[in-house]
Amino acid sequence: MANARAVQAPLIRRITSWVLALLIFGYVGFQVYQANTEMIHTETATYIETADSFSVEGVFIRKETVITADYTGDLGYEISDGGHVAKDGVVAKAYPAGSPVNVEDEIEAVDNEIESLQTLISLKDSYAADPGQLDQNAEKQMLTLLRELRSGEEKDAKTARQELLYTLNEKQIVTGVITDFSDRIAELQARKSELESQKVDPTSTVKSPAAGYFSSHVDGWESVYDYDKAEDLTVEDLEKEQQPKTVDSSAVGRVVTEYGWYFACVVDPDTALKLKGTSSVTLSLKSATEETFPAQVVAVNQTSQKENAAVIFSSDIMDETLINTRQATVTVNRGNYQGVQVNQKAIHFADITEEVKDDDGNVKTATHENVQGVYVVESGKLKFVQIFPLLTLNGYVICDVDLSDSQKEKLYTDRTVELYDEVVIDGHDLYDGRVIS
Fold first, then answer.
1. What are the residue boundaries of the structural domains of the chain, listed by start?
2. What CATH architecture applies to the domain 41-48+341-426?
3. pLDDT of 361-394, one tens digit each?
4. Do residues 208 and 86 lie in contact, with contact meaning Cβ atoms separated by under 8 Å?
5. Are 53 and 323 in contact (CB under 8 A)?
6. Closest among 208, 242, 213 to 89, alpha carbons compared
7. Sign (positive/negative) of CA torsion 30, 31, 36, 38?
8. Which helix H or strand E contains 176, and what residues bound it?
9. pLDDT per residue as tens digits for the range 104-133
10. Which residues pair with 212 in a beta bridge?
11. Which of 141, 143, 182, 230 is 20–30 Å from 291 (CA)?
């Protein structure tokens, strides 16, 4: 009997140890599971303003005709680049070699300054302008002048210069620094007489063969791409190495006969997918000013969704910079967005059940499946709130918070995500109403 008890004692101890070990492992496992289940991570929803834009290299395609002329001497242009010309309109005049060719432009500038000074003198007794406001106007006009000079807009730069000069002279009148511009006007009139004496008759004129926008620059690319087939261009067409044609020595300029132009480029598959759902964009030249101009997406030519695509934009905006730009880096902006951004990892889909009344006033239950939203921490509990995405950018979703009437009709939760919400980006067992300890 004693021997039996002696044999059983070690066995009992081993069984007890195994049971205790299992209990310990079970307890630890439960604690780990509970910790992982209850632990959540949040990020604060923040406000953002951004543009959905990208830069791309491409080529401008226009319907244009090269203007040629046989002349001797020096050529003076009558129309600035980007200016409109009628059919048979004079675009340039030839003068004897060595003759001043821009005398008439200088005379016009002198006349404009004389006229502005005479206007200031005639109004000086009725002026009540604020010098501070004039300083602000002059500062804005100076910035405009610098912008036009950088962009090469000669005509607009002249206008900006005249406006700035008028404002500076106006301030001198208002502050009493100058009461009379007679001496300056006399100088200008003497300068005008001198210029008049330098005028010579042109030996010949150059006319445009068609109506359109004029440019004094010819680069040999005028006929490399067929304007009438621009919307059919492929990736292969645009990636093929092209060379400009030899420019005729008699070429003096060109006229763009169609107001609309194309910008053709190659984009990656993801960008192509976005542009297929886009009709209007804004474009801006990277090398020019910050000015943007509207354009339409007229073609996205792609052999398959996994391949690059040839994208063709069109616009009818024209100025001195655009008419003289051929190959360029252009920034394409699909739109500007503002709203609350949340981490893309926070997005969930849930079925939302709500009670609605029919036309007879009867209460019915409606279930909306796969509603997109996020979980936020509110008053110590999880709350599922619906979101209305505008754009996904760099791992974050920009959500609309200024809901339209149609969006409000489709809002199936109490509210949408709001600024400074604590949004859950990681966690297990997430559900609406769960208490967060």
1. 1-38, 41-48+341-426, 100-199
2. Beta Barrel (2.40)
3. 788 888 999 999 999 999 999 999 999 999 988 8
4. yes
5. no
6. 208
7. positive
8. none
9. 878 888 888 888 888 777 766 555 567 777
10. 85
11. 230
